[in-house]
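Recall that a protein's primary structure is simply its ordered list of amino acids. Everything else, from secondary elements to tertiary packing, is in principle encoded there. The following example makes that idea concrete.
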Amino acid sequence: METIKYYIRPWIHGCLINDSLILLDLKRDQYYLIEGEKINIFKKYVCTDMVNVVVSEEKRCIHSPERSEINNWIDFDIITDDEKEGKPLTFCWVEGPVSPFEHIRSDKMPEIKFHHIMSVVLAGITGLFLIRFIPLLNIINILKWIKTKSNGSRCPDRGLRIARIFHELRPFMPRNRNCLYDSLCFFLFSWIYRSQPTIVFGVTDVPFRAHCWAQLEGVILNDVPQNSMQFKPIMSI
């Protein structure tokens, strides 16, 4: 007998919710739900935070249901048996939300200058271009590259001041855009003013929903805790 190991492809992220495993495929820009007997197969053969077990030759039979399920995951480019082309699945952790963002409306109006307006318009146009024409995986890689090349502040107070300005200028941007667009534009706007928030992607299982928001040191900057706390983080940038 030998230990059969498979590895998650680099563009796959996952999280455990109750008895289900939800995977985010950045390459295809879609989610997969693994539950029931399939999650037991996943735990057996795929390197995760859970221990792989030794399986017999019989279980490795090409005609077995387990092998059929594994082949499906390989065909969808979710897993690989090559350690150099994959990674163990690790689960995302971010600091719990403690944001006072819901009180921003009652705070003193931030001082808005012309360059703030130009910056939010630039962030809005750039965000719209990225979402319309650039695959999600490439967008994520661009954001990671920006974070590695910039030396922006991680100060929550500074991030909150930028969030207040962004919040006041949000009407200058399209209103019918989703949370990804909003978080992406906020990230770009913050980057212009040398702040470095983290974009968090979260999911729920029943019913399935996906959401993302920006936060800094546990302070949510473009959402409210009551909303974001409903989602379990699956990836952060």
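The chain is about 35% helix and 20% strand. The chain has two domains: 7-85, 101-236.
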